[in-house]
Specification:
homodimer, alpha/beta, Alpha-Beta Plaits, 3 domains, 11-stranded mixed β-sheet, 17 strands, 26% strand, EC 1.1.1.3 (chains A, B), Homoserine dehydrogenase (chains A, B), amino-acid biosynthesis (chains A, B), Asp/hSer_DH_NAD-bd (chains A, B), methionine biosynthesis (chains A, B)
């Protein structure tokens, strides 16, 4: 058996602790699978003495994780600190430059700097791996980059953020509205330190940008991911979705075509018959379409100590096995630069929810505006009035172009009878 | 870029032709991903001149595929002939002994001789790969052996045979009985040359034995897989399943515990709420459970030119990338020998369907026999009589031990009023 692979771990939060637990508990099994032992030599975190439920005294301690890059006895650095810049980025650059492989769970880092870091890894003949950055316990990066490598892939979509999926599932299950579920989710500790990452679709956007790169061999382009979160979803939208045969899911969708690359994260109405409609709570799921495999579907826990640490350790085992190919599965100079397709060019149907004062002529004004933009309706629902005399109107359009809907809603929002900004949810017949 | 990986293909049926199509069509993309070109140098099949829709004149022809093992200009041999022995096995042995990597879609070969072949591959420092042998387009071998390598896995179960899944789906969808759907499926060409492989669960058994080995690091033990097919499933069972909240699926289930290894293939009643209940027609699905990932679920097309060839080419790309580790992901001498658990020790509930003459005392006899074996019922259904005066009785037991049900049904089958052998379907609350 070869000599041990020596690793240092930067960050001892949930995931870092999980990595240590797995390596300690499955020592022999991992050595058998990797062909060599995995040995933790050093750890680093912001607070040395915090009780983490594990004994870290057996490992060298570093106050500054950047020291790992300089250590001769470290072959691989694990980064589970987080953040797209700062220490995480410096540690990645310096570790790779010093010829150490680098394994991270940091989606923001890879979405923003993946290309640059992959180039450094390539130039130094070491591995950059980030399975844990996307969809937790689902080995989706490996499945796409290796398992489906014979295919020209055309579409990747999925539920990429467990927290918002939990919130949407709970709204439907409990009949509570957004605000109440948000408070409960906060108390459970499920939200990122900056809740905007979850609630505004940014976390899912990071993951989608990474998936696009891996699936299509295109340069990571997070800047062109359209992102819209779940903050405006009300319980009544979830109820109307049910009535219309849909469920509301926050999806990331990426498609490559002759026209370019479409990358978007937003709430979707998906048919209840679609497998992805039944992925609930903290689970993530990814659908991958390619020319020879047709459609494949992957589901698993999206976050948490076990699933995320499992993905980090799988990457470490891969590196121990000597798999140190390109981070995005093709060399950087072959990664393509594909023009983005703007969300305004989307063709599809829309669910539209209006909140208006109940007055004669409101519906006439609304429908006239839609007609002027060439948007036709297949469904219009109105069910009684609210206590304050206002009324919710729900409409489903026929297939149309997003820019027409946007133009119509802009005019509708200007009507004096409209109380809230109209909400449009894209219908995706996946 | 390194020199090309030169391959020879034995077998030009659907899959062999698919492999050639992919390599020809995605030449540049594959070279980018593999880091080197993949070059087909020779092909072999039983009939040289058959029209296959592709031009094979560019490749050397061999009347005898075994010649590939001797060729100095072949790095890797692809075997898509089929059969557990004969040419397929000889070609595997000789190719590996001659230092050539070997990629196969042949589940019978690996289920029967995987351990022996893995040892030869190991001794010669080459790769033995068989992603295409299980679940077609789903990269399940790689996902388990690499993606989930950090976990102690405890269970793998799935729909592993697309043909029988198609038949069960069609019975429910069309309301036609088994015999009629069997004829239609034959006409569509979906059945193996020996239909018993599909209908009696043998094909799924081969695949399950392979999955067990990969997931648990246990020696492949196909001999101890319990197999029962779908031949006795009637439309009325499918209809009763629906009424009871279940769907009938032919599952392979493998579990590793302190007591040993349980491997079985048989029709199951699965709750309609389980994701696997909604995997229809030619799709396969696999659920993998482990200590850190919890549960992961994979779905995709189980067979056909595209998905199977995609898996073969993914293996070839892996070998081209230099990934030539152990076939079962741990070295052969570390593969464990685990005692089998007999199906008679299964604990669970059972759906039981009887066909009896409608006479006073029949139900009393049946229920007395069950009581004597300590099998208690949670449901009993009887709906009118058949035209011939016979009647179907459907029962669902409480949780019990399989051997008690077997003993009771043996006695019940001996009753003079019983027309057909009783059918028991295991209920799996997955």
């Amino acid at each position: 058996m070869s000599k041990p692979l020596k690793i240092a771990i930067a960050g001892l939060g949930t995931v870092g602790v999980g990595v240590i637990k797995i390596i300690e508990q499955h020592n022999d099994m991992i050595a058998a699978r990797a062909g060599r032992a995995i040995e933790v030599v050093a750890v680093s975190a912001s607070n040395r003495s915090r009780d983490r439920g594990i004994d870290i005294t057996a490992y060298d301690w570093a106050d500054n994780a950047l020291d790992f890059a300089e250590r001769d006895d470290v072959d691989l650095v694990v980064e589970v600190i987080g953040g797209s810049d700062g220490v995480a980025k410096e540690l990645a650059q310096q570790s790779l430059e010093q010829g150490k492989s680098f394994v991270t769970a940091n989606k923001a880092l890879i979405a923003h700097h993946g290309a640059e870091l992959a180039e450094i890894a390539q130039n130094n003949g070491v591995a950059l791996r980030f399975e844990a950055a996307v969809a937790g316990g689902i080995p989706i990066i490996k499945s796409i980059g290796e398992g489906l490598a014979a295919n020209k892939l055309t579409e990747v979509h999925g539920i990429l953020n467990g927290t918002t999926n939990y919130m949407l599932t709970q709204m439907e299950a409990t009949g509570k509205d957004y605000g109440e579920i948000l408070e409960e989710t906060k108390l459970l500790g499920y939200l990122e330190a900056d809740p905007s990452l979850d609630l505004d679709g940014i976390d899912a956007g990071h993951k989608l940008a990474i998936l696009s790169s891996v699936a299509f061999g295109v340069k990571t382009n997070f800047e062109n991911v359209y992102m819209e979160g779940i903050r405006r979803i009300k319980l009544l939208d979830i109820e109307y979705a049910k009535e219309l045969g849909y469920r509301i899911k926050l999806l990331g969708i990426s498609r490559l075509s002759e026209q370019g690359l479409e990358q978007r994260v937003h709430p979707c109405m998906v048919p209840r018959s679609a497998p992805i409609a039944h992925v609930d709570n903290g689970f993530n799921a990814v659908v991958v379409q390619g020319d020879y495999i047709d459609r494949t579907f992957y589901e698993g826990r999206g976050a948490g100590e076990g699933p995320t640490a499992s993905a980090v350790v799988a990457d470490i085992i891969d590196v121990a096995r000597g798999h140190n190919g390109s981070a995005f599965f093709v060399p950087q100079h072959l990664m393509q630069d594909v023009p983005p397709i703007d969300i305004s060019d989307r063709i599809g149907s829309y669910y539209i929810r209006l909140h208006v004062q109940e007055q004669p002529g409101v519906i006439a004004d609304v429908t006239a505006t839609l007609r002027d933009q060439d948007v036709s309706l297949q469904v219009m629902l109105q069910k009684g009035s609210e206590q304050d005399g206002s009324v919710y109107i729900v409409m489903v359009t026929h297939e149309t172009q997003e820019k027409k809907v946007t133009a119509a809603l802009k005019q509708i929002d200007g009507l004096s009878t409209v109380i809230d900004k109209a909400l449009a949810i894209r219908i995706e017949n996946l």
